[in-house]
Structure formats: C-alpha cells, structure tokens
Amino acid sequence: MSPSHPAPARHDGPTIEAIGLRKHYGDVHALDGLDLVAPAGQVTAVLGPNGAGKTTFVKAVATLLRPDAGTLRVAGIDAIAHPEQVRRVIGLAGQNAAVEPALTGRENLVMIARLFGHRGDEARAAADVVLDEIGLTDAGDRAVKTYSGGMRRRLDLGASLVGAPRVLLLDEPTTGLDPRTRIELWESIRSLVRGGTDVLLTTQYLEEADQLADHVVIVDHGKVIATGTPSELKTLAGRDVVEVRVRDGHDLGDVAALLAPLGTEEPHVDEPARRVAIPVERGTAALTDAVRIIGERGIDLDDVGLRRPTLDEVFLTLTGHPAVEALDPETTEPSTHGAPAPHTHGAPA
Amino acid sequence: MTAPLTSPTSASARSISASIQAPARPPGVWATAATYATRTIKQFIRTPQLLVVNAVTSIMFLLIFRFVFGGAIGTGDVAYVDFLIPALAAVSGLFAGGAVGVAEDMESGLFDRLRSLPIPRPAVLLGRSIADTLLNTWGTVITLVVGVIVGFRVHGGPVAAVGALALCIVFAASFSWLMIFLGLVSGSAQAAQGMSFSVFPLIFVSSAYVPVESMPGWLQPIANNQPVTAMVGAVRALVIGGDTEALLGHSTSWFVVRSLLWSIVILVVFASLSARRFARL
Ligand SMILES: Nc1ncnc2c1ncn2[C@@H]1O[C@H](COP(=O)(O)OP(=O)(O)OP(=O)(O)O)[C@@H](O)[C@H]1O
Ligand SMILES: [Mg+2]
What distances in angstroms separate CA A132 from CA A114, A151, A244, one per listed residue? Predict the structure, then answer.
C-alpha cells in the first residue's frame, strides 16, 4: 500500500517560504496575509503574543490545516499541492506534549519511529539514539506518567526526531516549564541544531528567541510585523534604558547633563519621581559609565539600574499597542516609528 | 527525578543525523493500524481505571438487570437470564469508551502529531477500531463468564454459540466506528462522554432488556425496526435455539441477515464520515 516513490529531493532554497498566507475562523483572521521566509541551515523563531497566529502557522506548515489563500513551500515542496511529501521531511512537536503517559519513554519513541516508516529493529535503534540525545536513556523504560514536565517535553521533542526530519517544527517548546528546565530544553534544542537540522520554533519570549534563533520573525494578528536577528530587533524594540533616581531633587539637572553624552536620545527627566531615564546603545557599559561619572561628582543616588527591552516594548514600539490586548483590527497597522535597520512589515529578508 | 542534562558534545550533536537514516518508505496501512492499535491496547491494559472500572460497571449492570429488574420483566417461555445475556453481549460496543479515547487523543495533540506523519491517515482510525473491537471482545467474554455463573446457558449448540460470539465481534467492530465518529466530532473527552449517552435510546428502545410487545403501541414499530433489535435478536436466536419463530417472533436467519446488513451500513457510513473528518480535523 505504501507509495514507492522516493523521498522528495533535497533543495537549496529556504526551508520555509510563505507568501500571503491566510486562514480565518469565522471573523478571526488567524493568518492575515503572512509572509515569512525561514532561511536554510538556521533556527527561525516566530515570536508573538497569545492569539498571534503562531500555532495556526505551524499547523499550516505541518499540513494539519489548509490555508484559505497564499502559497507555502516547505523544503521546496508545495505544501498545499503535495502535503503528503511535506510529511516525509518534517517532524512536529506541537504546543502540548503529545506523549502517551501509559507507555514508557522508549515505547513512545518506537511507536512514532514506526509511523515515520522505520521497521522493527530500525525503529528500536532510532529510539535508542534519540533517548541518548535527549538524556532520557536511564528513564527510558519508565512509564511516562512518572516523568516530570520537563522530561515529557524532552520526550516530545525526541518523538519529533526519530524520523530524522530535515525540518523540525517546535510550537512553544518551553511554555509552562520552570526556568531551570527551560534552560535544559534549550540545551537539547541547541545540540540538535548543531547536528544540522533546520528548526522553526514559536515562542512568546524575546529571551528564548534570543537564546536559540538566528532569525526572528515577529507576528501579531496573523501578520509579520518585523523580521531580523535578535540584536536587530532588540535595537528596534527600544534600546536598553539606564534609570537613575537621585536623593536630592536639585541634582536632577546635573545628572541629566552628565548622562546625556551616554545616550542615544535626550534624557527624560521625571521631577516628581526624582528620576532620569536615558536610552543607551550598550546597556551594561553605559550603566558602569553612568555610575562612575555620577560617583565622581559626589551626587547621592537612591537607585540606579538598567532596564532591558521586553517583548511588550517590542510590541508597543512596532504596533503602538501592548502585546496583550483584545483583538482589534484597527490597531494591527504597523506604526511607522520602527527603526529602519530590520525589515519591517511585509519585507522578508 | 531529573535525568542528566544532555551533554552538548559535538559527538552527540551529530548523532541524530549520523545514526538515524530517514526511512526509505512511509509506513503502509497495516503497519500504521497495528502500531496505533498496539498503543491503544497497552494504554487500556496499563490504566487500572479503564481496566477495572469497565469490567466492574458491566458486571454491575448485568447483576442489576438479572436480579433487580429481571423478576418484573416477562419474557414468555425464555428465561430472563437467557434473554438478557445475549443482549448485553450484542450491544456492549455501544457502552465501550471508544469515543472518549478518540477525543482524548485529539485533545492531547497526539492526532496532530499523527497527522503530521507520512502515514495513510485513515489507517489510524482502522487501528482504533481494531483495538476497540478486541477490547470489546474481552468485555464480552467477561459478560458471558459472569452470565454463566448467574444461570445463563447456551441451548443452541456449539456451532451456534461460536456464531453468536462471531456476530458480537462484528457488531462491536461496526459500533466502534460510530464511537470513533462521536469522539472526532465531540471536541473534548468530556463532551465525548456526554455524546456516548446519546446512543442510549437506541439501546433501551429495543428488545435488549424488555420484550418489544411490552412497549406502548406507537413505540413498537421504532423498536422493531432499528439495528439493536436485529442484533440482539440474532445473538439471542442462536443462543436459545429451538423454535425461534415461536419464541422470538422471527426465524434465526431473519435476525442474522438483518443484523449483518445493519452492521455493514453502520460501518460504511461512520467509517467514511470518520475518515473524512480525521483528514481535515
Ligand atoms: N480551530 C479554531 N477555531 C476558531 N478559532 C481559532 C481556531 N484556532 C485558532 N483560532 C483563533 O485564531 C487566532 C490565532 O490562534 P493561534 O492558536 O494560531 O495563536 P497562537 O499564536 O498560537 O497563540 P498562543 O500563544 O496562545 O498559542 C486566535 O484568535 C484563535 O482564537
Ligand atoms: Mg499556539
């Protein structure tokens, strides 16, 4: 019964190429003309808040749903015309860890390996390799219901790998994990990437995109609002901000004058709070400089600190609305005050 | 509890692509169905809640009808226990948890993963049907054993007994597709549980627990012309033997042929609806 045609040939273009992708559920435009290119040989992160359309996009790439309009190529294959060929080159770890609690870790992997097309011993061998890779060899013969959340996530990641896919799709791989477990999972993902697998992952965390991805695509309301490297986007997000609170309000003017040369913009003085804030280029260096300069003048400070741009600020900068907000089509238009460096809206690299 | 952290050495980093060849061919229908069926049966056997609760409820049901309601239900020249046990065996597929299992696999994301794999998609459902039918057959055997303990006897001879069991398996296979469909459209395990109850009228407005003649006149044509009555009648006729025309109102072959036709219709309709639904979940 199995089709005997050979696996789709390798190709040289981008791993994923989406143009004008649309998918709506009733009035909700989950994908609203999404243009996205995931370059080959890289980790691409799709970054966006709840409801941005990340899962919908991953499902379209994984051929779980058919877009209403647009074109989508995965590893060079037209995913809408030939979904069955796409399934031979992808591995999916969805937003929920889809592992069977009643089976052991090894049994879970062998099951998925068989469904990728491995036979008997081949499937068991693939499961062994993957168990080793995800650090679950010792726990491999225990029922998954005894696993911690982090172990389940890693097993789920492993299950997407037993078919040695060319393209790995990870939908929010670390959501719900504690910080330490998240770092462990990052390590697992990194080591896979070093093995040469192309990865598309989604996340709500700028930090995660920063840690794992070479190429970041920010999505909101089903559209791409910015693409670039993590550092390009951070710049775009608004720079790091050095914030200083003086003990004596009379020093505000002096402090602002001292800080001005360090910043990329004029310092912002908040008199009632006795605070001076200034956006800077290189946060930590600017912070040490600020402390030194103010200290040399003998001005007393109550507080001094560095504020990093958050995902919320990225959104605020790019869209003019906070990341968490009710769906409102009027606010989806990208505002124009994004810095020109990264490619904004509809201009994939 | 935590397994050792993966060591990010370059050796291990290269191991996936170096040690695992991408499979030469995608799996076929049988490999896919057998893999998913195996997983489903293992899940059932290793989940005490499923294993024990299913057995206990069906035994309880049997005992309540046998000893509590049985005395009040007149079944003519047939002993009530001989009237009841074939019915329980014939319709057990409608009590099975297939719909809930399917909905759980949908909710957990397992179906998403399966649908991303290079498998013939309907084969997943075939695997589910095979697993549910096997598990159901096991339930039928328990029912028969407990039935014999409380007085049930086969009067139709060994060939008829084997035929009756075979029919029960056919009915279970057919109902398994109805349950798969309910599970697929339900959207959640809880809803699937509720939807499973929607088949109760089919069970109770039939000759399963009471003779149709004891129902009000307007209800009798409905009861007489629905699948459960045909199925229950077929198993009952084989098990009771003798002059079924006189005892049950129709000949054995009348019941058997009708029950098989119903099974085929149910199977074809719900298997194709389910396959279509699964492909575009
Ligand atoms: N099956 C569906 N039926 C109706 N609406 C849907 C469906 N799937 C997604 N949506 C809607 O489409 C939009 C995008 O959803 P999607 O799941 O892709 O977002 P997401 O970026 O993955 O969010 P999250 O971070 O919460 O996972 C949301 O408004 C969601 O409510
Ligand atoms: Mg999502």
Answer: 18, 13, 50
A58 Cα–ligand 1 center, Å: 11
What is the reported pLDDT for B281? 66
B40 CB neighbours in chain A (<8 A) are: none
State yes or no: pLDDT of A39 exceeds 80: yes
Quick check: A155 contacting B, CB < 8 Å? no
B129 pLDDT tier (thresholds 50, 70, 90): very high
| Cβ–Cβ gap A190/B118 under 8 Å | no
Nearest to B17 among A116, A150, A197 (CB): A197
**Domain boundaries of chain B, sorted by first residue:** 29-279
Do A147 and B26 touch, CB atoms closer than 8 A?
Answer: no
Residue B279 near chain A (CB below 8 Å): no
Q: Which residue has the CA at smallest separation from atom 11 of ligand 1?
A: A30
Compute, in angstroms, the gap from residue A51 CA to the centroid of ligand 1: 5
Spatial distance between the Cα atoms of B140 and B90, rounded to a whole number of angstroms? 8
Q: What is the pLDDT of residue A24?
A: 94
Euclidean distance between CA atoms B259 and B267, whole angstroms: 12
Tokens 């970041």 -> residue: A216
Residues contacting residue B221 through CB under 8 Å, at least 6 positions apart: none
The pLDDT value given to residue A309: 67
Q: What's CA A111's distance to the chain center, in Å?
A: 29
3-state helix, strand, coil in chain B (%, to 5): 75, 0, 25
Tell me the Ramachandran region of residue B246: left when phi exceeds 0, alpha when psi lies from -120 to 50, beta otherwise. alpha
pLDDT per residue as tens digits for the range B173-216? 999 999 999 999 998 999 998 888 888 888 998 888 888 888 89
The sign of the dihedral angle between the CA atoms of A118, A120, A121, A126 is positive
For ligand 1, the distance from its centroid to the CA atom of residue A30, given in whole angstroms, is 6
Question: At residue B110, what is the residue type?
Answer: L
How many A/B residue pairs have CB atoms within 8 Å? 178
* Calpha distance A137→A151 (Å, rounded): 11
Tens of pLDDT, residues B47-98: 888 788 888 988 998 999 888 888 788 887 788 899 999 999 998 888 777 8
What is the pLDDT, as a whole number, of residue B72? 82
CB proximity under 8 Å: A 173-212 to B: 181, 184, 187-188, 190-192, 194-197
Whether chain A has a CB inside 8 Å of the CB on B48: the answer is no
Quick check: A98 pLDDT over 80? yes
Min Cα–Cα distance to chain A from B61, Å = 28
Q: What is the 3-state secondary structure (H, E, C) of B196-261?
A: HHHHHHHHHCCCCCCCHHHCCCCCHHHHHCCHHHHHHHHHHHHHHCCCHHHHHCCCHHHHHHHHHH
Q: How many residues does chain B have?
A: 281
The model carries a pTM of 0.82
Helix H or strand E segment including A201: strand A198-203
Pocket flag, ligand 1, residue A30 (CB < 6 Å): yes
State the complex-level ipTM.
Answer: 0.87
For residues B43-48, average pLDDT? 90
Q: Is A55 in the pocket of ligand 1 (CB under 6 A)?
A: yes
The dihedral sign for the CA sequence A176, A181, A187, A189: negative
**Residue B11 pLDDT exceeds 50:** no
